[in-house]
Specification:
This protein is α+β, with helices and mostly antiparallel strands. It is built from nine helices and seven strands; from the N terminus they run βααββββααββααααα. The chain has a domain of 140 residues.
């Protein structure tokens, strides 16, 4: 199987976007719930969706980075296994060196300093749904996924689903660890009680 080039941001931008995601998650659910979804370490962020899928983003020396994980909805058992299975499908060894030997994986991405390439199932699933560029009207973009998430949250909070503003959502993802309350509040539809938890979550990403 050939590697597939994937349109994802550079590692610094990925790190900021994940900080924005963590902030929104904590603002909706609380900081104490954040650890159920995000594990934040130096140069490493792991996200679990709560249903069995996960991905891990790792910064590597020399401006490189990797993303690897497991998609529970992947229909192809040929990709499911450990690091060796994905390497047999032409994933580079260095993409998977940060993965634990017993991790169950079915996709991997590597950034070589200039571009991202992927091996595994449909490369626009899982990680790109939280990271890919594009407007909120493009179903595979980070903005679309974030808008959907907050629209569902607004329905739970207000009893009516309200779509957020693209520019406000974009500002949250761009701010990353430097997110302030005004930017976060503008993106949230409704009066959430955990906004300060959201700011604390973003601050976890400071390096």
């Amino acid at each position: 199987m050939a590697q597939t080039q994937v349109d994802l941001p550079d590692p610094d931008t990925v790190h900021r976007i994940l900080a924005g995601w963590a902030a929104v998650h904590a603002a909706v659910f609380s900081l104490s719930d954040l650890e159920c979804a995000f594990a934040v370490e130096t140069d490493r962020v792991t996200y679990h969706d709560g249903g069995g899928s996960y991905f891990c983003f790792v910064r590597l020396p020399g401006g490189r980075a990797a993303i690897f994980g497991f998609d529970r909805d992947c229909p192809d058992p040929d990709f499911e296994g450990d690091r060796d299975v994905l390497q047999d499908h032409r994933a580079e060894r260095w993409w998977l060196e940060p993965a634990a030997a017993d991790d169950t994986l079915n996709f991997a991405y590597g950034y070589d300093g200039a571009r991202w390439c992927a091996v595994g199932h449909d490369p626009m699933r899982v990680a790109p749904m939280m990271l890919a560029p594009g407007s909120s009207r493009e179903p595979s973009s980070a903005l679309s996924t974030l808008a959907d998430f907050l629209e569902e949250a607004s329905d739970d909070l207000l009893g009516a689903a309200v779509r957020g503003d693209d520019l406000a959502l974009e500002a949250v993802l761009a701010a990353g660890p430097d997110l302030d309350e005004a930017v976060l509040r503008a993106a949230m539809v409704g009066d959430y009680e955990h906004l300060r938890d959201g700011l604390a979550a973003a601050a976890l990403f400071r390096r």
